[in-house]
């Protein structure tokens, strides 16, 4: 069995996403590797929504373009998805008569037979889809039961009936069009099927995050929903605050008091948080800030994906202070780096920014199960026995690593002032030459310490050790590139899971054995290559860029190299 | 013998306020209130805004976070959320609280976050050399409004009341014993407490002098006023008729924000929870990510 690609399209409100998820989970439950990607406009009714599922008995880490089956709920599919349709694509529709691979599915009649409601159209098409891919109707029924569990047994049974009618109808009328003739073998186990946002939220909780604050902003909102839903189970405090400025300042207050804290937003909210980011930097208060990117500037395209904030994240807020910018490539890394971020922020007493994007945040991936047990250590907190005198505690004491010991409010003999103004070692405001310079140098000392530590996420090489071409990328392109690499024996790939502080030594070492470097990014100016040139002097002149709000597809990368060699 | 910071509640840094500034009185009243309540310096947490009032950060010996302009309130609410055992006091001016930071004032009042907000109210932005503040009466001439301010003044007490603050009071910086009593009540109050303190600014506010204040102030406790009736309090806050009543306008007991959190445990605040071992298994089953 090779990779198959299924897609359902229709208007918002027609249940595109729920149908897509039910179908994807049906495939996942049958032991297949599943990758699901959804596109939708920023509205509640109307517009054009899509949900596509690529599934295989082999690892599947990217969306595919060419479709095996396209489900058309509103008659728009053929016009809008021309480039995805091949001469083999089956199109299921109720708006056109059957002709070649366009197969009519009388949705209204079938729903009537099931004494159902028009909203069940999507479920009928799922039953039909199961037939074409030789998927168990039983597995589909299980997912239907789960999704409609709150609506009661009658709704469940009607939906299951609708699915069966869809299945039986295509089996009776179009059995010659079946796509998968043999039952697919179960090939994946011990996996999760989850989104990047879910993985990131779980990682933060595993890393000891105790307080989460956010103001809703697509595509970061589902992190807030996840945290709020699991507030009790995870034993955390969650607040949807008045605005992003309130969010970041409240999180800093909580962190100063001793609780590991995180905030999540997208570019617009991150812009509002910039002064707070600087406050975290100068006051050396640990904080994790998640920026789930979408195209901008300003309101941009809220429900689409992009990677335009790389240099912004590295440079945001006035003047200079150390920070860490993590760029997870997939849910596995989102989990690990989100957990690590909680520890790094506290260890180095600085802001840690996690850059994700809508594609990683809201797509569903099949990933290896995360470990259930997690251990954490607290950093930099001084014990009571080391505090001898009731006098101002030197919170910003000059040290070799740049990291000063911390006391927490309530701790006797640890009284200090945490300060947004330039300050001396005791935290009191000063405008004198020596303490200002000393504190700037003290903060900057953290950078080499961070880079030398074993926990720093260094750039990684994937594919053959040497290759004719080397793709260089960061963040969510990882899965797409890895999928493409399977068909590109002459290409390897350097992935950055952390772009700041810039891993100069490791990158130079990896770049040394490369021939042609090509950056791949979802922005228009190749910000990674600008960063690499700034940091290493290496001038990468070949770029594969996309900035239309959509992620890369593996075939686009494959075609790029094909056109290079021909 | 020289007293220690713990005894004086002050650092060795000499206050930079102008002679006759109302902030001296407010600082003295804060010290007396904490003495009265027997709260040691390490058990009190202050957040400071940006402005003359908040330069107090360097003079107070207690845990403190000197934050950004307009943001002292969310900092304070964050501290309280992480460690509800500690009393948290936000020091802020009328500009920071009712101008730049007004969204926080309203949002946190509505949530009854358990913090005491002391708004140092001198009707001006004094640290930036005396521009109008949201409290300045219409027509006030300042460097940013040389032809007279156009806006009607903001009403701090009425706004606190209609946004569900559970303790609303006004004091006068020059009457330290009276202000001390208000502070004691405000610190003891569980919930969002607003204490608006009228303070003369001898450098920039030449009309609202200490004498002017003395002519306008009325003591509520001398009028047998009971701070339990919301409508009376609102009437008092809105219809002041050229008088400035001081005292507690309104006080109500109701659950605080942190007490209403689904997993609130007063003995195990988030700041001190053990994170050495975390098991995410229960989350995995409820989030339905597993097959």
Question: Can you walk through the features of this model?
Answer:
The complex is a heterodimer of chains A (566) and B (291). The model of chain A has no long low-confidence stretch (mean pLDDT 96). The two termini of chain A are 30 Å apart. Chain A has 20 helices and 22 strands. The longest helix of chain A is centred in the N-terminal third of the chain and has 22 residues, at 153-174. Chain A has 566 residues and is α/β, with parallel strands linked by helices. Chain B has one domain (5-265): Thiamin diphosphate (ThDP)-binding fold, Pyr/PP domains (Rossmann fold, 3-Layer(aba) Sandwich), CATH 3.40.50. Helix content of chain B is 30%, strand content 17%. Chain B has helices at residues 5-8, 22-36, 72-82, 94-100, 102-110, 156-162, 176-188, 210-216, 230-238, 281-286, and strands at 45-48, 63-66, 88-93, 116-121, 124-125, 131-132, 167-172, 193-198, 217-219, 244-251, 277-279. In chain B, helix 9 (230-238) links the parallel strand 9 and strand 10 (244-251). Chain B is globular, with a radius of gyration of 20 Å. The mean pLDDT of chain B is 95. The interface between A and B is large, with 78 and 67 residues.
């Amino acid at each position: 069995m090779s990779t198959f690609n299924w897609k359902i399209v229709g208007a918002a409100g027609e249940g595109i996403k729920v149908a897509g998820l039910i179908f994807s989970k049906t495939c996942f439950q049958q032991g297949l590797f599943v990758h699901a990607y959804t596109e939708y406009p920023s509205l509640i009714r109307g517009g054009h929504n899509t949900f596509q599922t690529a599934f295989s008995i082999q690892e599947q880490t990217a969306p595919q373009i060419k479709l095996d089956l396209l489900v058309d709920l509103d008659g728009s599919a053929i016009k809008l998805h021309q480039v995805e349709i091949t001469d083999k694509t089956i199109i299921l529709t109720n708006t056109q008569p059957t002709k070649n691979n366009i197969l009519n599915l009388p949705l209204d009649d079938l729903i009537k037979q099931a004494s159902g409601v028009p909203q069940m159209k999507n479920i009928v098409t799922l039953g039909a889809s199961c037939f074409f891919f030789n998927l168990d109707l039983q597995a589909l029924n299980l997912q239907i039961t789960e999704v409609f569990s709150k609506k009661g047994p009658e709704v469940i049974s009607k939906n299951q009936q609708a699915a069966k009618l869809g299945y039986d109808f295509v089996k009776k009328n179009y059995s010659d069009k079946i796509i998968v003739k043999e039952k697919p073998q179960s090939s994946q186990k011990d996996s999760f099927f989850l989104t990047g946002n879910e993985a990131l939220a779980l990682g933060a909780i595993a890393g000891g995050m105790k307080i989460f604050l956010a103001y809703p902003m697509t595509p970061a909102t589902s992190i807030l929903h996840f945290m709020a839903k699991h507030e009790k189970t995870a034993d955390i405090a969650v607040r949807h605050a008045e605005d992003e400025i309130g969010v970041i300042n409240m999180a800093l207050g909580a962190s100063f008091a001793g609780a590991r804290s995180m905030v999540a937003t997208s570019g617009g909210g991150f812009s509002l948080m910039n002064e707070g980011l600087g406050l975290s930097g100068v006051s050396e208060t640990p904080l994790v800030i998640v920026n789930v990117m979408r195209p901008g500037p300003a309101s941009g395209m809220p429900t689409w994906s992009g990677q335009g904030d790389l240099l912004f994240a590295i440079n945001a807020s006035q003047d200079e202070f150390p920070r860490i910018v993590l760029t997870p490539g997939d849910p596995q890394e989102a989990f690990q780096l989100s957990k690590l971020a909680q520890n790094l922020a506290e260890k180095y007493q600085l802001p840690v920014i996690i850059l994700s994007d809508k594609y990683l945040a809201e797509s569903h991936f099949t990933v290896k199960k995360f470990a259930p047990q997690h251990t954490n250590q607290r950093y930099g907190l001084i014990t009571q026995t080391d505090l001898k005198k009731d006098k101002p505690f030197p919170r910003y004491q000059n040290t070799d690593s740049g990291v000063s010991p911390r006391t927490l409010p309530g701790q006797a003999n640890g009284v200090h002032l945490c300060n947004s103004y330039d300050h001396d070692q005791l935290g009191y405001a000063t405008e004198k030459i020596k303490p200002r310079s000393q504190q700037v140098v003290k903060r900057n000392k953290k950078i080499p310490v961070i880079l030398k530590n074993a926990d720093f996420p260094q750039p990684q090489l994937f594919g053959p050790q040497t290759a004719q071409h080397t793709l260089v990328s960061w963040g969510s392109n990882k899965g797409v590139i890895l999928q493409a690499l399977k068909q590109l024996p002459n290409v390897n790939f350097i992935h950055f899971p952390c772009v700041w502080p810039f891993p100069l030594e490791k990158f130079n070492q990896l770049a040394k054995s490369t021939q042609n470097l090509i950056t791949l990014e979802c922005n228009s100016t190749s910000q990674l290559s600008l960063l690499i040139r700034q940091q290493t002097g290496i001038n990468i002149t070949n770029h594969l860029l996309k900035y239309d709000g959509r992620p890369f597809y593996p075939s686009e990368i494959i075609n790029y190299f094909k056109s290079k060699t021909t | 013998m020289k007293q220690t910071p713990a005894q004086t509640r002050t650092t060795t840094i000499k206050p930079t306020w102008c002679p006759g500034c109302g902030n001296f009185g407010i600082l003295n009243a804060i010290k007396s209130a904490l003495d009265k309540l027997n709260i040691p310096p390490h058990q009190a947490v202050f957040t400071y805004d940006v402005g003359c009032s908040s330069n107090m950060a360097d003079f107070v010996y207690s845990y403190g976070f000197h934050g950004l302009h307009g943001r002292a309130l969310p900092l304070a609410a964050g501290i309280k959320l992480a460690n509800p055992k500690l009393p948290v006091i936000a020091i802020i001016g009328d500009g920071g609280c009712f101008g730049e930071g007004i969204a926080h004032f309203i949002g946190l009042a509505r949530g009854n976050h358990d913090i005491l907000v002391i708004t140092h109210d001198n009707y001006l932005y004094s640290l930036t050399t005396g521009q109008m503040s949201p409290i300045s009466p219409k027509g006030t001439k300042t460097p940013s409004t040389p032809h007279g301010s156009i806006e009607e003044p903001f009403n701090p007490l009425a706004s606190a009341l209609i946004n569900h603050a559970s303790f609303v009071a006004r004091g006068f910086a020059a009457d330290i014993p009276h202000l001390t009593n208000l502070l004691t009540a405000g610190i003891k109050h569980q919930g969002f407490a607003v204490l608006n303190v009228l303070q003369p600014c001898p450098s920039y506010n030449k009309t609202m002098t200490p004498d002017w204040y003395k002519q306008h102030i009325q003591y509520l406790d001398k009028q047998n006023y009971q701070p339990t009736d919301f409508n009376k309090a609102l009437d008092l806050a809105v219809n002041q008729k050229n008088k400035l009543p001081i005292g507690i306008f309104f006080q109500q007991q109701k659950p605080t924000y942190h007490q209403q959190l689904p997993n609130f445990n007063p003995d195990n605040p988030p700041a001190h929870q053990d994170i050495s071992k975390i098991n995410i298994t229960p989350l995995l089953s409820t989030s339905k990510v597993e097959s």
